[in-house]
User: Which sequence fits this backbone?
């Protein structure tokens, strides 16, 4: 239902906006807003993903805590595992919604730039994961005594850059897997090997920030690797989205 | 195709027949002794793997952007061979590592990036097998992402540490070791090319059969 109204309003946006760039961003924003409105009404994905992320933290806490004390460097790893696992879940659910009523096909039939559709979906997924991270990060800080506030800006930048890299690949693959059989199993199988650099850089960078004596140049180095990774993978995704989604 | 097949087959057979003799005659390495001889199969199998992976990546790009179905069949063949030769490399490596480092596996730049690259090609094959129709495009995208991924993994773990011998080892080999190495490299690369040709031929035959079947149904 929501997609149909977006199709109409997307068309209107195309006609009313004269400049190509503003119509690109307007289309992307329409798709993001559509996803956020649907999510805001049901809150299905955000609640289930959040609960899953918290359970992940608990499960890993049991394997890394000995005699009441968490193993060193465990916090950074657990945080990123929770993000990666719940991110996969959110991606799967976000696109399952588009599959059920075949609304992704409707989106693909709209006379707009394909990359704009991709950016719109990506922004929706990122907003969801931001909510999850905003709750899981303080939780990890609380339970493992991780000093998240000491370099809050750098930590936020690492989380943002890592999530963008993870979601950029994930959105592309989840969109393409809509037509495939056994898509639930295939998404993590394809996503984890490809996003290993994000996980490595994220865990190492966050781990540096959680140490007793923080090595700031090292954390910045990992951040720059993450940003570089984001640039390459978003470009590659924008480039391949159009030919890949053609039927 | 058939013209290229026979000479390649003879070349591969000859190189593989001569390889054990050449390896046996090569001198023992001063510190590691016998176990160093794994090197003559380990490095060439990775060379064959990179050849197959490059073929897969380039063929995937052509398939994705030019839409030529025949290149998709080359990409599948390349991915399958990458997994096979990568597996040989992943088995021979730890055998040597156990002797040289005392452990089967090290979380080292080269080892991790090789494992990740191998996993990407396994994922590619899983997608082809279980993804159903329409997964050709996605697997082409996966191969492209996989190609872009390798330098990143390499770089990110390299900041960590590396214990694997450098590639420059191959260039600075003693002539007595270099000659057997060349024979083995030739054997593996020509075997890879031979299997690639055969596999592409098989895929082409399958595609022809599918077309004939569809024509018959109509």
Assistant:
């Amino acid at each position: 239902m929501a997609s149909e109204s977006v199709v109409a309003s997307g068309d209107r946006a195309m006609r009313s906006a004269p400049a190509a760039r503003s119509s690109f961003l307007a289309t992307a924003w329409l798709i993001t807003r559509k996803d956020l409105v649907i999510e805001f009404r049901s809150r299905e994905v955000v609640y289930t993903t959040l609960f899953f992320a918290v359970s992940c933290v608990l499960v890993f806490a049991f394997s890394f805590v000995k005699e009441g004390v968490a193993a060193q460097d465990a916090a950074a790893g657990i945080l990123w595992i929770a993000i990666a696992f719940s991110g996969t879940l959110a991606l799967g659910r976000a696109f399952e919604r588009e599959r059920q009523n075949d609304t992704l096909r409707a989106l693909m039939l709209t006379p707009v730039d394909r990359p704009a559709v991709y950016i719109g979906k990506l922004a929706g997924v990122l907003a969801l994961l931001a909510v999850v991270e905003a709750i899981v990060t303080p939780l990890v800080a609380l339970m493992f005594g991780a000093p998240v506030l000491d370099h809050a800006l750098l930590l936020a930048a690492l989380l943002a850059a890592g999530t963008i890299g993870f979601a950029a690949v994930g959105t592309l693959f989840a969109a393409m897997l809509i037509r495939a059989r056994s898509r639930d199993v295939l998404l993590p199988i394809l996503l984890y090997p490809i996003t290993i650099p994000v996980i490595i850089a994220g865990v190492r960078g966050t781990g540096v920030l959680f140490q007793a004596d923080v090595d700031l140049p090292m954390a910045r180095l990992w951040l720059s690797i993450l940003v570089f990774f984001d640039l390459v993978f978003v470009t590659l995704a924008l480039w391949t989205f159009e030919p890949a989604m053609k039927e | 195709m058939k013209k290229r097949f026979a000479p390649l087959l003879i070349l591969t057979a000859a190189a593989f027949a001569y390889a054990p003799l050449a390896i046996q005659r090569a001198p023992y390495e001063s510190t590691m002794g016998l176990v160093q001889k794994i090197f003559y199969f380990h490095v060439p199998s990775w060379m064959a793997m990179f050849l197959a992976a490059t073929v897969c990546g380039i063929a995937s790009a052509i398939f994705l952007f030019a839409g030529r179905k025949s290149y998709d069949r080359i990409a599948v063949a390349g991915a399958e061979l990458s997994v096979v030769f990568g597996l040989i490399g992943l088995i021979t490596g730890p055998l040597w590592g156990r002797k040289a480092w005392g452990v089967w596996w090290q979380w080292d730049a080269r080892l991790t990036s090789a494992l990740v690259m191998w996993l990407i090609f396994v994922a590619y094959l899983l997608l082809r097998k279980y993804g159903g129709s329409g997964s050709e495009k996605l697997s082409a995208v996966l191969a492209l992402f996989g190609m872009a991924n390798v330098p990143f993994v390499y770089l990110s773990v390299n900041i960590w540490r590396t214990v694997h011998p450098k590639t420059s080892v191959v260039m600075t080999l003693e002539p007595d070791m270099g000659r057997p190495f060349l024979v083995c490299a030739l054997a593996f690369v020509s075997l890879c090319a031979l299997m690639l040709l055969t596999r592409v031929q098989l895929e082409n035959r399958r595609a022809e059969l599918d077309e004939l079947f569809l024509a018959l149904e109509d």
